[in-house]
């Protein structure tokens, strides 16, 4: 005897097991189909997983619902706070608008009052112009400017000062009209003189500008000339073992009366440069400096000839020989001016040159002819 067992499947019914009875033993035996058994297990597991998934979904939905409820409560609380704050802000805005309207009204009232005060001020200015002959005391060129500056800034003090002057006027006697007229004439004369002074000052500015223009075109040449003299003078002094310098002196840039040339010399190493002065240097030292300066001048001035008279007087033999050698070197150069060197005496064995001539003039009771003289050519 066979008994078929079935299982319910969501899609169809399949045979799960077979129950068989045995005649010999008189017993029943349940036989499972392995394929059906495996399929049954899979379907059971699938159903359990689906059931678990549904439960998890319900839990998540419940959690989301709780969060939404909490968020709703929070939003309602925030809405309540917002409405409260909005109401307070609306009250503040209304108050501000009311204050603004009140301020506008006050500003309009102040403007009206200012216009009234300005009108009064214009009237007072007209009165002031009449009293001061249209001379505004607030301007620096006004004769009443200092008096205006001395007036107090406080209204009460100013009012008291006005009353004081009014009392003084009441106490004053009648003023002679001729005196007032003379005073006004003097004021007019003063103004005319001030205008003349102003014109002179403006003219001075014109001349000052003209002087500056001339100075800018003239001084560089002067400075260059002095620089040339200084260079040659320094070279001449250095060739003799001394130090010399020529510089321009002046008190001010445009003080031309103070312009001058200063000669500085140094004859000893332990003495600084000193201005050439008869109280400081000896006669021989001054003669050396003057001779060097004279030779330096020939480089800036061109003349047909030069005459030097007794330049060696007061010099010692050493300086005289150096000066004479320097004279010979400079005066015998090509293109140099002719030099006449007049002296009552000369040293022996001086330097000579083929372009230099020596004229000996004899004079005295022993000379028979007044035209007699000796001409000596250098060997």
UniProtKB/TrEMBL annotation:
The keyword Chloroplast does not apply. InterPro entries: P-loop_NTPase. One of its GO terms (biological process) is double-strand break repair via homologous recombination. One of its GO terms (molecular function) is single-stranded DNA binding. It comes from the Eukaryota. GO terms for cellular component: nucleus; Smc5-Smc6 complex. Keywords: Coiled coil. Belongs to the SMC family. SMC5 subfamily. This is Structural maintenance of chromosomes protein 5. It comes from Glossina austeni (Savannah tsetse fly).
């Amino acid at each position: 005897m066979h008994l078929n067992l079935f299982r319910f499947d969501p899609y169809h019914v399949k045979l799960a097991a077979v129950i068989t009875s045995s005649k010999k033993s008189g017993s029943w035996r349940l036989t499972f189909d392995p394929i059906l058994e495996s399929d049954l297990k899979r379907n059971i597991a699938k159903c359990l997983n689906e059931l678990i998934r549904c439960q998890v979904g319900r839990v998540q939905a419940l959690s989301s619902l709780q969060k939404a409820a909490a968020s709703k409560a929070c939003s309602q609380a925030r809405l309540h706070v917002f409405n409260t704050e909005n109401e307070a802000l609306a009250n503040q805005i209304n108050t501000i608008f009311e204050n603004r309207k009140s301020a506008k009204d006050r500003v309009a009232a102040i403007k009206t009052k200012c216009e009234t005060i300005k009108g009064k001020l214009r009237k007072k200015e007209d009165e002031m112009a009449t009293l001061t002959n249209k001379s505004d005391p607030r301007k620096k060129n006004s004769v009443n400017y200092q008096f205006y500056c001395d007036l107090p800034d406080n209204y009460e003090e100013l009012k008291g000062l006005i009353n004081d002057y009014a009392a003084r006027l009441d106490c004053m006697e009648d003023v002679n009209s001729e005196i007032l007229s003379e005073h006004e004439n003097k004021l007019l004369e003063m103004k005319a003189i001030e205008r003349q002074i102003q014109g002179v000052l403006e003219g001075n500015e014109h001349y000052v500008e003209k002087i500056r223009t001339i100075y800018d075109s003239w001084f560089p040449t002067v400075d260059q000339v002095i620089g040339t003299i200084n260079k040659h003078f320094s070279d001449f002094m250095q060739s003799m073992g001394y130090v010399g310098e020529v510089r321009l002196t002046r008190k001010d840039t445009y003080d031309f009366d103070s312009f001058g040339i200063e000669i500085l010399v140094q004859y000893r190493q332990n003495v600084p440069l000193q201005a050439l002065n008869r109280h400081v240097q000896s006669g021989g030292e001054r003669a050396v400096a003057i001779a060097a300066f004279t030779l330096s001048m020939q480089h800036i001035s061109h003349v047909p000839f030069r005459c030097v008279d007794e330049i060696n007087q007061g010099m010692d033999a050493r300086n005289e020989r150096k000066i004479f050698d320097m004279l010979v070197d400079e005066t015998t150069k090509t293109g140099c001016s002719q030099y006449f060197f007049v002296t009552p005496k000369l040293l022996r064995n001086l330097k000579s040159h083929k372009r230099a001539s020596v004229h000996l003039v004899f004079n005295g009771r022993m000379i028979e002819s007044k035209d007699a003289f000796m001409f000596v050519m250098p060997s």
